[in-house]
Amino acid sequence: MKPTINAVIIYAKDVAKTSDFYTRHFGFSALPELNGITELTSPAGGAKLLLHKAAKGLKNGQACVKIVFDVDDVQAFKETSAEKGLLFGPTHEAEGYSFSNAKDPDQNNVSISSRAFRS
Asked: How distant is the alpha carbon of residue 115 from its chain centre?
């Protein structure tokens, strides 16, 4: 099982303003919000941008990006990762997919998600 990067989560103070920025300036298309996430896709393909409302306490200049790796089986990937020394947090269930979070050595947010494989 080889994970791929398919999406980047951007924590935005104003999701509508950020969505407008990427659709207006970079040609992305916005899908309707689902589970608090607005998904932006490029007609050229590539990684999706997932816009998520930033917590009130988040200050500009703090880490506002999470790297998302698509995996078809979150639990199996967590188990394999644990054997190699990377522990993920709890698995969260959403509408038709699951995800789990960890941090890289620099404390950047990393997520594994089955969102791309949802039914």
From this structure: 9
